[in-house]
Amino acid sequence: MKETIFKQKHLLSIEDLSPEEIDLILEIAESFVEVSTRNIKKFPALKGKTVVNLFFESSTRTRSSFEIAAKRLSADLINFSASISSLKKGESLRDTVLTLEAMNPHIIVIRHSASGSPKYLTTFARSSIINAGDGFHEHPTQALLDALTIKQKFKTLRGLKISIIGDILHSRVARSNIILHHKMGNEISLIGPPSLVPKEFEQMGAKVYYDLKEGVKNSDIVMMLRVQEERGGGNYFPSIREYRKLFEINQETFSLAKESAILMHPGPLNRDVEIETSLADSDKSVILQQVTNGIAVRMAVLYLLKGERNEIIN
Amino acid sequence: MKETIFKQKHLLSIEDLSPEEIDLILEIAESFVEVSTRNIKKFPALKGKTVVNLFFESSTRTRSSFEIAAKRLSADLINFSASISSLKKGESLRDTVLTLEAMNPHIIVIRHSASGSPKYLTTFARSSIINAGDGFHEHPTQALLDALTIKQKFKTLRGLKISIIGDILHSRVARSNIILHHKMGNEISLIGPPSLVPKEFEQMGAKVYYDLKEGVKNSDIVMMLRVQEERGGGNYFPSIREYRKLFEINQETFSLAKESAILMHPGPLNRDVEIETSLADSDKSVILQQVTNGIAVRMAVLYLLKGERNEIIN
Amino acid sequence: MKETIFKQKHLLSIEDLSPEEIDLILEIAESFVEVSTRNIKKFPALKGKTVVNLFFESSTRTRSSFEIAAKRLSADLINFSASISSLKKGESLRDTVLTLEAMNPHIIVIRHSASGSPKYLTTFARSSIINAGDGFHEHPTQALLDALTIKQKFKTLRGLKISIIGDILHSRVARSNIILHHKMGNEISLIGPPSLVPKEFEQMGAKVYYDLKEGVKNSDIVMMLRVQEERGGGNYFPSIREYRKLFEINQETFSLAKESAILMHPGPLNRDVEIETSLADSDKSVILQQVTNGIAVRMAVLYLLKGERNEIIN
To answer: Along the 314 residues of chain A, how does pLDDT read in single tens digits?
Structure first.
């Protein structure tokens, strides 16, 4: 069985995955895509298993994407949110998760503002941990769904040029994508103001550009990041207006990429800030396809992790 | 098959339905009522389908009524609420729904304060849209569950006199009921202060009364609307006390309706404001039966819409 | 069938249960524990039944424990919380529950700050009511899961000495445990400052101690209660620091209990306030086992109540 390639008990980061494991996840995801768009039916793979959505940061798309994925695999899904949790009563993350763990869930999907918290959980949890975004660190299922979208378009994940534009410094989406495309041997250009794209990122195998036109030239993939408005106004860039003038992708700047290039964005969009509306809604854009692929990729990850618990032997 | 009468892909309004479609919905709902009160079991009709509750206004009864209905049909139900959605990050309704749509749900149940928003969704969504209340416009499943309750009592939906009392102007429940009973050829009287019941409503086929006793005379159905307390105090009526004196239904005023008349209210009640407690709890009241019928009517609507998605052909 | 021992339609309190009923619940729970820790699968016992979690106080562990238990028995679970309910619109508890009832749920699990509210519901509700904590009154499933944990350790629920330490006065957990262990004929010592452990508790069959060392001596079970920090600072005890000095359980004070003694806590912990961290994490502690047993006990209770609704015959 090909699935024996997959060695992970958890999905913490793209860093942890081999190119073969990435290929396998995408292959399984593709089979789920096919079924899902035709005659959707439930798969029994996780029947009787409990998946917990433990979100300490609010989220619509990621949380519900995992919820739909888990339910399509027949799992029982329990939503936890920080606002109703005992954390408000001063309980530590460790005690919260240990309590949750004692309820014998099979998979815990965690989003947390602290980088490294999913990995920390694996030091004491017996269930499989999935990182749904941790601080400025990684957001592996986002990079995987991006990769699936790219593969659907180009029939390959190798030999491509990807440009990522915006606040690279604070973006776990960017980090996971950089690591993934570096593993796959793709050419990566990172574009933005120096305050948001430090030269140090070149150590990750990317090239840094401070000029949008120069960086985007000849790209197969143009991936925009969301502008965090609270970072404007003198902290990282002078103003939204200034930022837009220099780094918005629009018909003109996008035309410098390859003829066959696609436009990506993890959402939600700031229309006419980092992305021109007419371009976002054009047939160059695969933004909604990314969302669709999110379900399939998360189904594939849940399927591969299987939800086998380590039993304690002590 | 009788079900071929039903031509709708969405349920946006009573306006859109033919009398035959209304009859069909109620007939199917009646069969669900019968089963539900005996030995409840799950129906497989929506197995593998995803229903999204997208509520931008808070709601206990409608949201959970749809949730129970969907689950009894074996659908997967995903709850969205505005407070956790990306709308807080400034995303437009269109982008929120497009994102949701990309997850391939089959049916989206939407409540929104903007009249017409469910219809707007149909211009770009591929799933079936159900209006669970839009601004001052319509609340079609409420009118349908009211109609089912009326039909259970009178064995017919024709040739009846219905009086609706209260804030007609701002009530989507009233509007949907007026349209439904006008379609069915029933006599409609609308009762309340002139500020809340403008004469213009007569163009909808109703008769307007500013005197409770006069309007309620000879009614088969007396339907009270909830007083929105924030409308009192000089805006639409002088005070709650004043309002109550003129428009509260009580044993005395209710006795002017027919001997066999029933008392309805969409809930939640303001006891001893628009409705006298002893009357609300009497055997004239069918208020709780309305709630029970809500499940059956929503099951019928979900069942008829089937959740077949339009596939894109472009 | 042994199950005919169980005479309850509701689970309102430990007070209502006979020792035989308690034994039966634990016996069934034990069989669920066994299955749950091996190869978890769904049980069809509550298939097609609707369980409502109606929580008027926030809670992570109890709410989700009931949710997981219900789902493992194949029930449909609907979460209600006070914040989204019509109570905000001024509806009474009675009207809220009557509305909910009209949706024909089979079991309502209620947590409410008013002592006696679950019992009040039984006066007009047709579904089975489970008390998930009512004011300072009872929290019967907590006492049952504690009892299961004790029985797993000592192979019996009789002839033991249990010490309960902390704010007995305001603790429904303590009350339910006192009643349960008094029924079972166990020796009970209650320990804390006089302001939190009035002498009157001796009428419940317990012995009151104001000295931790004296009370804890020779115990089989040491059960700590959570310090409610808002009670410190002059109201019930001078300060957290003072409280800790006198009533924290630590390696030293715990050593006065029997060699085989176990340490319990309903969670969430105030580490190094009422309980020393090294002790909480030692192999004397069964705190996480309590959480695990919560699922099994709630499954047993849901299973025994069966969710048969009284049908109205009027």
So the answer is: 577 789 899 999 999 999 999 999 999 999 999 776 666 678 999 999 999 999 998 787 899 999 999 999 999 999 987 654 445 566 889 999 999 999 999 999 999 999 999 999 999 999 999 999 999 999 999 999 999 999 999 999 999 999 999 999 999 999 999 999 999 999 999 999 999 999 999 999 999 999 999 999 999 999 999 998 777 767 888 889 999 999 999 999 999 999 999 999 999 999 999 999 999 999 999 999 999 999 999 999 999 998 665 544 32
Domain A2-139+292-305 has CATH 3.40.50.1370: yes
DSSP single-letter state for residue B164: E
DSSP symbols for A139-208:
-HHHHHHHHHHHHHHHS-SSS-EEEEES--TT-HHHHHHHHHHHHTT-EEEEES-TTTS-GGGGGGT-EE
* CA nearest to C39 within chain A: A48
- Three-state DSSP class for residue C131: strand
Is the separation of the CB atoms in A272 and A280 below 8 Å?
no
Indicate the fold that domain B142-291 takes in CATH: Rossmann fold (3.40.50)
Please return the burial class of C16, using the count of CB atoms within 10 Å of its CB with bins 0-12, 13-18 and 19+.
Answer: middle
- Which chains form contacts with chain B, at 3 or more CB pairs under 8 Å? A, C
Provide, as residue numbers in chain B, all residues whose Cβ is less than 8 Å from the Cβ of C105. 68
Q: What is the CATH T-level fold of the domain C2-138+294-305, as seen in this structure?
A: Rossmann fold (3.40.50)
The CATH class that applies to domain C140-291 reads alpha beta
| Chain C environment of A104 (Cβ under 8 Å) | 36-37, 40, 292, 295
Q: C19 with C181: CB under 8 angstroms?
A: no
Does domain A141-291 fall into CATH 1.10.3720.10?
A: no
CATH 3.40.50.1370 domain extents, chain A: 2-139+292-305, 141-291
- Where in the sequence of chain C do the CATH 3.40.50.1370 domains occur? 2-138+294-305, 140-291
Q: How far is A52 from chain C (nearest CA, A)?
A: 10
Distance from CA of B84 to the nearest CA of A (A): 6
Q: What would the DSSP string read from start to end of B241-290?
A: HHHHHHH-B-HHHHTTS-TT-EEE--S---BTTTB-HHHHTSTTB-HHHH
Cross-strand partners of B112: B134
DSSP, collapsed to helix, strand or coil, labels residue B55 as strand
Comparing C-alpha atoms, which of C206, C218, C227 is closest to residue C254?
C218
Q: Which of residues 113-172 of A touch B (CB under 8 A)?
A: none
Looking up tokens 């904590």, which residue turns up? C133
